[in-house]
Amino acid sequence: MAFTWGVSTAAYQIEGGAAEGGRGPSIWDVFSHEPGRIADGSTGDVACDHFHRYPEDVDLMAGLGIDAYRFSIAWPRIQPDGTGPANAAGVDFYDRLVDALLAKGIDPVVTLFHWDLPQALEDKGGWLSRDTAFRFADYAGLVADALGDRVRMWITLNEPFIHMTLGYATGEHAPGQTLLFGALPVAHHQLLGHGLAVATLRARGAGAVTIANNYSPVWPVGDGDAEAAAAYHALHNRLFTDPLLGRGYPELGLDPSVVRDGDLDTIAAPLDALGVNYYNPTSVRAPSTPDSPLPFEIVPVEGYPTTAFGWPVVPDGLRQLLAWLKDEYGEALPPIHVTESGCAYDGIDDPERVTYLDGHIGAVRAAMASGVDVRGYFVWSLLDNFEWAEGYTKRFGLVHVDYETQVRTPKTSYAWYRDLIRASR
Ligand code: FCB
Q1: What are phi and psi of 337, to 5 degrees?
Q2: Which residue from 196, 301, 317, 402 has the fewest beta carbons nearer than 10 Å?
Q3: pTM
Q4: CA 234 / ligand 1 centre spacing (Å)
């Protein structure tokens, strides 16, 4: 089977058009407009103006020669207040986008939830509320009704771990809650929403169904840090994989009353693929103070070059985690797609990004050579975009965006990726 080359984006990070086509507010609209939340005081109101400029962006994708484009649907474009029938103008935008992609021979890969919950649902408890899982499945059904005839691959959730942690445990992301382990019900409700959405998609004859998880190899700093590393590994890597693959939850203190009869079966519905997002490993040591609220402490990974985000560049970490997934889950592991891999660097001539991507694609090849079934690789991201709490200060694109003029300029890495795809045919 041919390997799939792609790029990834997310709605709130590129679309703009925040008040157009009847779109309702999401938690990111509300959060980014609060003073002090975003590094450069910016919002996604306009972002890359992809809402209007998508034909140009699809041309840029066609120029790359990618097989597939992973993008997300803004839930509040489809259901402005999170419930009820589909908003026709919102559906129309994605309808046109999907058709434009198919006209260029690019397969649409649709992420249903990339963190932009309708604010009306957050007002009712967001993912702390069990009801949100059912609202998500309803929404998934509306999108499948509208696009299911043309979409071959569906991703239910993007990085539920990051959304739970930064959104509900530590508060750097929307909705800005700081509940620490009190955020664990968000894990269960997202996973339940995933399982219910899988059933909804299957009932509508959907093609491949998957979820995109963030993974990070966890490295204990010293000999005395193994227990702390195991605790963090359970949280980051196992909490959102064990139950999907039929093992139930790792022991993390999730209140058992949150998990109702039948939920674990719903969550363990068979998947056609597992989406893996990888950026870097995590170094962990035991907490330095006895009264620490967490059983681990995260410290910088030493000894590697870093990106403009300060993230360590460790291509072998991707090989390690792909090998871990295969060793740990064996036959239960579906084929893998690397659904995000990329780095922040400034500049249109970006040899560092070329080195980064070359190293990470090499790591995928090494994992495949050792028997891991990897079917695709998606670069994060097509365009420079709104990088959440960092605003526009971190540039992840293969294509540079001048946010004053919205002029797009392909970077050195764009030409490199295009040539790599061409050469692999
Ligand atoms: C991932 C997110 C994606 C982007 C990259 C840099 O965690 O899924 O939206 O922000 O990080």
Answers
A1: -115, 130
A2: 402
A3: 0.98
A4: 21
Q: Residue 1's pLDDT is what?
A: 61
Confirm if 119 and 79 have CB atoms less than 8 A apart.
no
Ligand 1 lining (C-beta closer than 6 Å): 10, 13, 158-159, 162, 214, 277, 340, 380, 387-388, 396
Residue 277: strand pairing partners: 214, 340
One-letter-per-residue 3-state SS of 236-266: HHHCCCCCCCCCCCCCCCCCHHHCCCCHHHH
For 98-125, what is each residue's pLDDT tens digit?
A: 999 999 999 999 999 999 999 999 999 9
| Separation of alpha carbons 97 and 78, rounded Å | 14
**Mean pLDDT score, 390-394:** 98
Please name the residue that has the structure tokens 């998934």.
140
Q: Specify whether 122 is catalytic.
A: no
pLDDT in tens, 129-161: 999 999 999 999 999 999 999 999 999 999 999
pLDDT of residue 399 exceeding 70, the answer is yes
352 a catalytic residue = no
* ω into 281 cis (within 30 of 0): no
User: pLDDT-derived band of residue 269, with 50, 70 and 90 as boundaries?
Assistant: very high
Cα–Cα distance, 403 to 385 (Å, whole number): 9
- Give the type of residue at 147: L
Which residue is catalytic, options 15, 159, 352, 390?
159
Given a contact cutoff of 8 angstroms between Cβ atoms, the answer to whether 219 and 323 are in contact is: no
Which listed residue (15, 122, 340, 352) is catalytic?
Answer: 340
